[in-house]
Specification:
alpha+beta; 3 helices; 19% strand; YefM-like fold; 3-stranded mixed beta sheet
């Protein structure tokens, strides 16, 4: 069952509320008697990343001359233009 608190109590007791969240409780923060936020534990996704399963796979092409800087850019960087 969640715990309800108002904004001023949450600000004054944030460390204690975080301890309760770490222990598995859920805190609902209210403003003027209306719920506005939920304070709950962060759930880490420890699933190993699977290379090659990204949404952009096959949609992005990097040209062979990607690392070649055009001469006019080099001149501009050197202050010659």
């Amino acid at each position: 069952m969640p715990i309800f608190t108002n904004v001023s109590e949450a600000k004054a007791n944030l460390s204690k509320l975080l301890e309760r969240v770490e222990a598995g409780e859920q805190i609902i923060i209210e403003r003027n008697g209306k719920p506005v936020a939920v304070l709950s534990a962060y759930k880490y996704d420890l699933t190993p990343r699977q290379p090659g399963t990204g949404l952009w796979k096959g949609r992005v092409v990097i040209s062979d001359d990607f690392d070649d800087l055009p001469d006019e850019f080099m001149r501009a960087f050197n202050g010659n233009e």
